[in-house]
Specification:
This protein has about 300 residues and is of the alpha/beta class. The protein is built from 12 helices and 8 strands. The protein has an 8-stranded parallel β-barrel, surrounded by 6 helices. Strand 6, helix 7 and strand 7 form a beta-alpha-beta unit. Helix 4 packs parallel to helix 6, helix 6 runs parallel beside helix 7 and helix 11 packs across helix 12. The termini are far apart.
């Protein structure tokens, strides 16, 4: 069975860099987007968890898409986050993202409300009808409070507008059965499980660590899909300190700190997140170096 990767194989969920006054640093948005392209990315996910989407306005989200599109051109896929816990607002975000130039939509399970599976399915079906853009379902139950159950995923996969699944469930057995049952293209949404998910049929990654080790992740993908599994395992093991180090606290916090250590401008975070402490930055520096990342 060969499952196609509708958005390419390597995508990273990009941070939204903020200045000291917490306005968006547009020069840094351009710089980080160009950095991701230069490290081998096929696509960029904007306005997601790592992009601190809950703290950016609808107007800011639209402008982020427009600015990144100007930087990356037409060959790099832009997948825009367009989901929250209220369907009518999510539909409007979907329409705005399509108008701004996105190639696809990342739609998370409605959070906090803890809807039943019928409500989850109805939400995603409504989002699929909101625009002409294909949908990537986002299953991350430890954040949303409720999983997309396998039967629901299989049902939704029959909709031609639902093109992929970002899997951050952490249940490889469940995901294995989903892939077998409906062949939905699955993207790993948990960096430390990137290689294990490839082994059961995933097509690529929606990474966070791609900010710091994008080139290595591309090498892992190329090695795996060319049949050099031993090389892919070698890269996986090399990157373990980066995977662990980036998530010692919330991912956006330490990703921004990592970018700063790499000489790029990660910038501040908006509340309720808080910037990395000096101790956290020192530990992150050690973790990145242990994974082969050049930092200052």
């Amino acid at each position: 069975m060969s499952i196609q990767a509708p958005f390419g194989r390597l995508l990273t969920a990009m941070v939204t860099p903020f200045k000291d006054d917490l306005s968006i640093n547009w020069a840094s948005v351009e710089e980080i987007a160009a950095h991701l392209v230069s490290s081998g990315h096929d696509g960029i996910v904007l306005n997601g968890t790592t992009g601190e989407a809950p703290t950016t306005s609808d107007e800011e989200k639209v402008e982020i898409i427009k600015v990144v599109r100007k930087v990356v051109g037409s060959n790099i896929k832009i997948v825009a986050g367009a989901g929250n816990n209220e369907t009518s607002h999510s539909l409007e975000q979907a329409r705005q993202a399509a108008k701004a130039g996105a190639d696809g939509l990342l739609v998370v399970t409605p959070y906090y409300n803890k809807p039943p599976q019928a409500g989850i399915a109805a939400h995603f079906e409504a989002m699929a009808g909101a625009s002409d853009l294909p949908i990537m379902l986002y299953d991350i139950p430890h954040r949303t409070g409720v999983a997309i159950e396998p039967d629901t995923i299989v049902k939704l996969a029959a909709n031609p507008k639902i093109a992929a699944l970002k899997d951050a469930k952490g249940d490889i057995a469940s995901t294995s059965w989903v892939i077998k049952r409906c062949a939905i293209p699955v993207y790993s949404g948990d960096d430390i499980l990137n290689l294990p998910l490839l082994s059961v049929g995933a097509v690529g990654f929606v990474s966070v660590c791609g900010h710091s080790v994008g080139s290595e992740l591309k090498q892992m993908l190329n090695a795996f899909f060319s049949g050099d599994v031993a090389k892919a395992v070698e890269i996986h093991q090399k990157l373990l300190p980066v995977y662990t180090g980036t998530f010692r606290t919330q991912g956006a916090i330490l990703t921004k700190a990592a970018l700063d250590l790499m000489g790029l401008s990660g910038g501040r975070v908006r509340l309720p997140l808080v910037d990395a402490t000096e101790d956290q930055i020192n530990q992150l520096r050690e973790d990145l170096r242990a994974g082969g990342v050049k930092v200052k």
